[in-house]
Write a structure and sequence with these properties.
The structure holds 2 protein chains of 2 kinds. By secondary structure, chain A is an alpha/beta fold. Chain A has helices at about 25-30, 75-85, 105-115, 135-140, 140-155, 170-180, 220-230, 245-255, 265-270, 270-285, and strands spanning about 5, 10, 15, 40-45, 60, 65, 95-100, 120-125, 160-165, 185-190, 190-195, 210-215, 235-240, 260. Classes of the chains: A alpha/beta, B alpha/beta.
Chain lengths: ~300, ~260
């Protein structure tokens, strides 16, 4: 009753940890069997290794957190040779997130990554708010996002998902632009730009000043955007933004998501993903639903 | 490491804003070395959302209890201070790598330097060193005499010099001033406290083995979120960084760059 099939991702359940919130899986593999997960979205890979931003890189907010990690990762080659090798023992599909400063970086990383037998699909990060070049600029102008999607699609051996930024005025326009450019699916939403100021120092808490807001605080924004986009595109959506429990997963399906990703909640409870997967069948039974797919888009109808 | 709902057996104020929290459970059996920490969900809801990392001040394996000493400084620690005896607290741990005990031999002397809320993990360290037959000297800095805690407990284990910013203890100044004056003969130094204090120790006392426990804002505390990283001093290091939560929080002086 939980299995879902998305382009490149044949998932035994619709729950995956979100990119950037699960590293490359090893740390959480100490807590539970990674085969329990529907898929794993691994941390962003870039062409070169990146250290990321100075600390502090995280700040807590009401029901959420700000982060400005800055895409720290060991570079695509290292990830292929080490981090992905470590995941060979498990059969959970891998959604490999990629990022870059310019189009060529994305194309280089996408080509390399998509050739790995361990990678089932790519997730284009065009919405990272924490890097000076690239990142979010690709995610705010539909023509630029579409151009990048086309270029990456041309070199990728696996389906390509585009991770959308909520920091735009017309999310539907953006979604349609990347769909037309050939995207096989969408991930939404990435973090919302935010800031916190320390009352003692009277300066921003994050060294990067601004950061991306995640956690339960952004869930209504994600739900609204998925509700609107899912009714205007024909490609599946991996929904994310503040998911903490099975009820949240159901709400994302009702809004129009075809699978979900859990981000910040992993930090609160390392067992969050397996717990949600365990709770879902009972919730569906209570709703008289045989398969979770039946819930998708149920909120769309008029009252 | 496990995530356990531990029983609160004590949560009391022992100095202005300073609380001593004792919890009981199986997690205690897993603690390997002094200087490790736990990650606490201080409330069941989303206020606050994230856990709070707090170092372990002492353990009692017989009663399966561990003691944490924390300062009420924000919404997380404020909420924690309101939890009462008999409640259960969700605690993840033990986490990180603590102070090494095998770098010093029986009969030798260790100097333990602490500043403010950096003092607590030194207590379990001092107990462990004493048990090994190592002579311990404590140099502990606080703002005022009123802010001091655990003075008696430390004195029971070895010579203890309390330093205060305002001179309300016998010794006025910083722990660095005190160390210069005392000119101690020792083999290994261990320290935990504010980063400027650790940097000053690194500057003046790296000629002998020196181990520093760092503090950093954390997200996951298990090495996944990359919030608490610091650069290595060695620029040719393969990774170029260390995670305070899972590679530390204790590092040998000279391994990582201190940011202050």
């Amino acid at each position: 009753m939980l299995n879902v099939k998305l382009p490149g991702l044949d998932m035994k359940n619709p729950v995956m940890p979100a990119s950037g919130c699960f590293s490359f899986g090893k740390e959480y593999g100490d807590f539970f069997d990674l085969n329990l997960l529907g898929a794993i979205a691994i941390k962003s890979a870039t062409k070169e290794a990146r250290f990321g931003n100075p600390t502090p890189r995280v700040a807590e907010t009401t029901a959420g957190m700000l982060n400005a990690i800055g895409l720290q990762n060991p570079g695509v080659e290292h990830i292929l040779d080490h981090e992905l090798k470590d995941l060979e023992g498990i059969d959970t599909p891998i959604l490999a997130n990629i990022a870059g400063k310019q189009v060529d970086d994305y194309v280089y990383t996408a080509e390399k990554m998509s050739q790995s037998p361990r990678v089932n699909a790519l997730e284009l990060n065009i919405s990272c708010p924490n890097v000076k070049e690239g990142g979010i600029t690709f995610g705010t102008v539909p023509e630029i996002a579409a151009h990048l999607t086309e270029k990456v699609k041309a070199v990728s051996d696996v389906p390509v998902y585009v991770k959308l930024s909520p920091n735009v005025s017309d999310i539907v326009g953006m979604a349609k632009a990347v769909e037309e450019a050939g995207a096989d699916g969408l991930s939404m939403i990435n973090t919302l730009m935010g800031m916190r100021i320390n009352l003692k120092t009277q300066k921003p808490i994050l060294a990067n000043k601004a950061g991306g807001l995640s956690g339960p605080a952004i869930k209504p924004v994600a739900i609204r955007m998925i509700y609107e986009v899912s009714q205007n595109v024909n490609i599946p959506i991996i929904g994310m933004g503040g998911i903490q429990d099975a009820d949240d997963v159901i709400e994302f399906f009702l809004a129009g998501a075809s699978a979900v990703a859990v981000g910040t909640a992993n930090f609160v409870d390392p067992f969050c993903c397996p717990n949600i997967i365990k709770e879902l069948p009972e919730k569906l039974k209570q709703m008289n639903v045989d398969h979770i797919d039946e819930l998708r888009g149920r909120s769309w109808g008029r009252c | 490491m496990i995530n356990e709902k531990m029983l609160i057996t004590k949560n009391t104020c022992i100095a202005p804003k300073i609380y001593e929290l004792t919890v009981q459970g199986d997690l205690v059996d897993l603690i390997r070395e002094p200087g490790q920490f736990v990650h606490i969900k201080v409330s069941d809801g989303t206020l606050p959302l994230l856990r709070r990392p707090i170092s372990i001040a002492s353990i009692n394996r017989n009663t399966k209890e561990l003691t944490l000493i924390y300062r009420v400084d924000g919404v997380g620690t404020k909420t924690l201070s309101l939890r009462s005896q008999g409640d259960r607290l969700e605690i993840l741990g033990p986490l990180g790598h603590g102070f090494p005990l095998d770098v010093i031999n029986q009969g030798e002397t260790a100097v333990l330097v602490g500043g403010g809320i950096g003092v607590p993990p030194l207590y379990e360290l001092s107990k462990s060193l004493s048990k090994k037959g190592i002579k311990v000297i404590h140099v502990l800095g606080f703002r005022t005499l009123e802010d001091t805690f655990y003075q008696k407990q430390f004195e029971e284990l070895g010579k203890t010099v309390i330093v205060t910013d305002d001179g309300s203890s016998k010794f006025k100044g910083t722990v660095i001033d005190a160390l210069q004056l005392l000119n101690l003969n020792y083999q290994v130094m261990y320290a935990c406290g504010p980063t400027p204090m650790l940097a000053a120790l690194e500057n003046g006392y790296s000629d002998k083995p020196l181990y520093l426990s760092l503090e950093e804002r954390m997200g996951c505390a298990v090495g996944a979120c990359m919030a608490c990283v610091c650069h290595t001093v060695d620029e040719d290091d393969e990774k170029g960084y260390r995670k305070v939560c899972s590679d530390g929080p204790v590092f040998k002086s000279g391994e990582v760059k201190l940011s202050c």
